[in-house]
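fyi for ur records
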Amino acid sequence: MKTDSSFLTSWRFIVLLIVAGIIIRVAVPAINGVTLIFLFFVVLLLVFRKTLIRAYTERIGSRRTNTFLFSEEYEKAVEFATEQIAKNPKDVVAHLTRSTAYIHLGNLEAARADCESAIALDPKSVYTLNNRAVIWLQQDNLSAALADMQQAISLQPDNPVLLYGRGMVHLRMGNDEAAQKDFDQAIELEPDQAATYVGRGHLEFKQGDVGAALDDYLKAWNLSPETHQFCAALAVAEFTAGEVEAAHKRWQALPTRYSRYADPDWQRRVLNWPDVMTIEASKLVAGLSLPAESS
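which gave:
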């Protein structure tokens, strides 16, 4: 029996319960209210057991995949999410989390395919729209990235993650005023969201206010010191501000397993650094006598 779980909250289901209760009560007067409620509860479990079990397994699966994402074990995240999708092709969360892992691995086509699958299943999945915008951004399709962010924000106007994402798109498009507005609003809504300070720092760096950028990068790093993308931005700001020794030490500690921190094109597309930052980063790297690309 195929059952839509949304039917549980519909007025038709409530009316059906009331009518069924009246019929049973009239037909079997000996049944008291408590017994009737118990019978309804048992019926609900039987009818919706598959939906409830699927929801539970999807929740457990998404937790496991997110653990791999947080520990930067992206291949394992892909493998586990693939297993979840094989069990339930309609698992939107599994498609979303696998797309995130693919983005980190640089497999943008596979990431976008997962986004398309998730959006087909749930057009209102704002984080899937956000992921697809990130992919468009890395592929330099700025108009498509902005369209996805606008659609996501129309669904959740006060979501600080989405406002940060749109701010990054505006930054890349050169819409500095719009980017500033989005970053400031995101910070007002969620002062502990570290990534937004980095986005605002990029804007400040671009505008020549290295001191303000350094302050924002420090805020982000203090909130999330384990995030190496934040450390990289902080290192560039320190170098530009004349704190060369600290910058060199911080840069040399950056991991290279999944990233190419010395690659200017990667800095621009993936880290969303403005041109002035990539220029300063190249000077920093030159001072360390490192190769043009890390791997």
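The domain at 137-191 is CATH 1.25.40.10 (Serine Threonine Protein Phosphatase 5, Tetratricopeptide repeat). thats all i got for now
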